[in-house]
Amino acid sequence: MKDELSQAAEKLELGAVLGMVAVNASSERTSQAILSAHVLDGLEEIERRQDETIELIKSLQKGEELPVAGGTAQAYFPGSGWRV
Fold first, then answer.
1. I need a labelling partner for 2 at 20 to 30 A (CA). Which of 33, 44, 47, 83 fits?
2. What pTM did the predictor assign?
3. Ramachandran region of residue 25, left (φ > 0), alpha (ψ -120 to 50) or beta?
C-alpha cells in the first residue's frame, strides 16, 4: 500500500502542489509545516489525525482561542467566520 500511495503522490505532483501552497504561506513557520506534509499510510494515524481535526473544528465553532507555541494564533480564515 505504501508504494501505491507514493506513486499516487508522485503522479499528482504532491511535492509541487505543496511548494506552491508554501510560497503563499503567511509565515516561514507555516511554510515549513506545509513542506513537511506527507502521505499518511497507517489507519491508526489517519484516524488519530481525523479526531484531532474534528476536535479543532469544534473548538473553533465554539469561539475558543487555540493555544500555539509562543501564544495564540491570530490568523483569520476568510469565509469560514473562524479566527484562530
1. 33
2. 0.54
3. beta
